[in-house]
Amino acid sequence: MGRLAAILLSTVLPVTVAAIAFGAYLCFGSARMSYLGLIDSRLSEIASRIDATAEKSLSLGIPLAGQQTLNGVLARERAADPDLLSIDVADGGGTILFSSTPARIGTAFVADQAEARVRRARIDNPFGLDEGDVMVRASQAAIDRNLDGLAWDVFTTAAMACAVALVLAVLAILLPLRRLYAHALDAAGHDDEPAAALPPTGRLSPEVGWALTAIEVEHDRIGGRPARPAQT
């Protein structure tokens, strides 16, 4: 029993752990993609709102560089989301005209993917010509922190599920083996009992009686003792 249990446990437990680990990996991958997709969607929505405001002013004849009210709009949008680094409006040459971070005004926009996740919206004039861009920058460090927290949650959940699954697997293997072992011992004990101690089978049909008689005859012939007829 011990050897059989060891073989079953060494086979089932690694498969159980591997299955849960693979499921946790797929779960985290799916959650990560969904989270990044939500961030990109939010950044694109902010950029589209500011782009619509700038294009409306352009349609009224206000040049992009003269839309001073954009500074207040950018500051309010930035204050609504603490994970944003900045929201910038640049002209066609890439020079920042307005920004939620005043120190960036007048500098050239540089997309640093290690520092920020960026989404843009192009600003067109009423004739469809490019006037500039809206750039929304989210903190990559904040995104990474949130993903690390998500990974830890998935890991702890998978670890608890793995512990429960291992306990259930051990019980599912050992309990049936104990019952089988008990039945085997019980059967071995009955084999050692004399025939008279076994429960009576009751009256047999003639066909079964003739079959048992033939078996007894053959058995007694081999054993060298006279056969006894079966009860019919």
UniProtKB/TrEMBL annotation:
Keyword terms of this UniProt record: Membrane, Transmembrane, Transmembrane helix
Superkingdom, natural source: Bacteria
Listed transmembrane segments: 154-175
Protein name stated in the entry: HAMP domain-containing protein
Phylogenetic classification of the source organism: Bacteria, Pseudomonadati, Pseudomonadota, Alphaproteobacteria, Hyphomicrobiales
